[in-house]
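Changelog note: in this version the structure field was regenerated for every chain. One regenerated record is shown below for reference.
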Amino acid sequence: MGVSGLDKKKRSMIADLSLLVVAIVWGTGFPVTDIAMETIGPNQLLSIRFGVAALILGLVFNKKLKGTTAVELKAAAVCSFLFWAGFTTQTIGIQYTTASKASFLTGVYVVLVPFLYWAFSKRRPDKFNMIAAFMTLGGIYLFTTSKGADILSFNDGDALVLVCALFFASQIIAVGYYVKEKGIDPIVLTVYQFAFSFVLSLSMVFAFGEFGIKQPFDFTAIVSIVFLVIFSTIIAFLTQNIAQMHTTETHAAILMSLEAVFGVIMSVILLSDPFTPQMVVGCVIIFAGIITAETKWSFLRKPTKPIQVVE
């Protein structure tokens, strides 16, 4: 293997590990979002998250934003709409369903991404990635149902969260397309994605008259909002957009879908929920799915011996 090939492999590994960290942060964000929404409404929360994130990143990367092209703005507009729509349907829907069920339904995007990518690019993902996606979803199912989520029942909140999975899957495809195929700077894309999403969220605040607060802000609410702005929004999405330059869309979906698993694990840690044998089985299946996507089981194949030519 040449040096360039080795460098590419290392970049891909770092990207995948970065997306794993993103999944941990997003998983923690499930219970934190519930806490924040005890004080303010969903559109207010999203406005704060995206608005503050856009302001901070705009100040930090102001030099990169100079000379922004129409192509970059178009890419940001597409990604921000999918991004905002996914968050809006999830944040509203989670109010009418359980956190465990929302975790599973959001995780459905892991199997949507390979098929959407296939439809969009006309390039079929390999069988290992397809198998890994379904294995991961199966593991997430075991995880979420272990906490009593009734996956078979369905209400309006569940429908909204399922729609959010479609938006998130589309956003992953769009980000991958723009940063890899069109060469859009992922930092510029992230800043404008937040800015456009802030405008969309703020318009929903006015549309629904979501101006008041449910209860006075306390320390827990403030810490929750700060966590969602800094970690779940700025760091997580900036990392996602940069990492997707160096990994496939299906890999990204598989790793980021682990937010559902970490969401359950955090409830075990923070809320003292029991860790059941069913969760262990789910962990094993998910881990096997990740191994399938990352290695394609190459370590099980016998190396081919070079043919020796006798002179």
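Spot check on this record: Residues 3-36 form the longest helix (34 residues). The two ends are 28 Å apart (CA to CA).
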